[in-house]
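Hi Prof. W.,

I finally got the Centromere protein V prediction working! I wasn't sure whether to trim anything, so I left the full sequence exactly as given:
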Amino acid sequence: EYRGLVKHTGGCHCGAVRFEVWASADLHVFNCNCSICTKKQNRHFIVPASRFKLLQGADNLTTYTFNTHRAQHTFCKTCGVQSFYTPRSNPDGYGIAPHCLDDGTVQSISTEDINGKEWEKAVKEHKTIRNMSK
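And this is what came out:
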């Protein structure tokens, strides 16, 4: 258990992929406007890898990469839903889709826009994003 955090569970649409993640009940979600996040509507919050556990479905995940190939866009082979991924900004953590969490553990969601169209500049200027997986 993690002090002050809540265990959230979630997964993809078909249920093949399931995970648990320890995070605040009050989520800070990024709304990125880069090409892939815009097309997927990839709103996400970031956690360290130590607070994420894949419960089932590793064999049902596939990965898409592009450009620098640092971000690992994982999604379910059956239903196509990306419930989590490895973000370029935090390759040692996970970006979790709050809309893929099961009901009952999220109290609030605050959303922060991030200019992924100018990714390098946005991440350099952001005070905390690179440390969110620590």
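The chain has one domain: 6-125. Does that look reasonable to you?

Thanks,
D.
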